[in-house]
Amino acid sequence: MKIALLDDYLGLAATLVDWSPVTSRATLEVIDRPLPDVETAAAALAGYDILCTLRERTSFPGELIKKLPKLRYLCVTGKRYDTVDVATAAMQGVVVSNTPVSGAGAGAVAELTWGLILSLARNIAFEDRHMRQGEWQHGAGYTLRGKTLGVVGLGGLGRDVARIGQAFGMQVQAWSPNLTDARAEEAGVTRVSKHDLFATSDVVSLHLALADSTRGIVDKAAIDAMKPSAWLVNTARACLLDEHALIDALKQERIQGAGLDVYSVEPLPEDHILRSLPNVVLTPHLGYFTQEMLTAYYTYAVENITAFLDGKPIRVVS
């Protein structure tokens, strides 16, 4: 069988785990470039029996799955598989498995979230760029202690971000469509309405899972409600918010700035306007992208693929 590891841009997969249980039984190849559309992906992947994703970098809509007649097994790294048309895969005889969530995952995303918040508050990226040009101070930053952190989505990751905010001495409030007073109290935060969270928070950080019910949930009205001095941070999913409304607010300086790790199109196009805005800190979808997290993903992937080769697939989703 032929197996492809997808979207391993940096060639890390082969260095992090032992693939010999797989390579002793099949041909393993790495695809180190983005596959931005169905036709490109179909042409690149048509010859493989087994595919292993790196999170959601390559989507598998039904149209693509139907163009891969040799495909028999799809191993999705990460717990979520909403970018895979599982029903069409089943109809095509393709087994789909996912991998568990490692503790390193939530920690990695929470840490990056706070990296973005601190960079915004203390102008770290901005000052770094100017220091490298031989310059000195350009502005005073802001102290987070005493300010208000608004957490949108109080699951495990949101709670981690909230706890760090509390350690900084911030007032923490939260909102999500299903958040209850009891869950908020358990996390030591205040539950508020969606409008009040956006209108009163100094930092808004998004941590909702993407679903039909949450797509576009941070709409223009929510962004327009933010204080001119506020920052918005998104390390969750780009489609949670109205990207155009956010860009307009940043261009017109109706909010102070944003820290973004996720985008509606990835990789972010070279000429995208976000790359030129001075009040944005950008990272290239690094939330989960740590040595520890990738090691966990690929360790589980070796287990999954070996089990499939044995005829006993594990962690099968439906």
UniProtKB/TrEMBL annotation:
Domain D-isomer specific 2-hydroxyacid dehydrogenase catalytic: 27-314
SUPFAM superfamilies cross-referenced by the UniProt entry: Formate/glycerate dehydrogenase catalytic domain-like, NAD(P)-binding Rossmann-fold domains
Pfam families per record: 2-Hacid_dh (PF00389), 2-Hacid_dh_C (PF02826)
PROSITE patterns in UniProt: D_2_HYDROXYACID_DH_1 (PS00065)
One GO BP: amino acid biosynthetic process
Domain D-isomer specific 2-hydroxyacid dehydrogenase NAD-binding: from-to ranges: 115-287
GO molecular function, one term: oxidoreductase activity, acting on the CH-OH group of donors, NAD or NADP as acceptor
Similarity remark: Belongs to the D-isomer specific 2-hydroxyacid dehydrogenase family.
Protein name as annotated: D-2-hydroxyacid dehydrogenase family protein
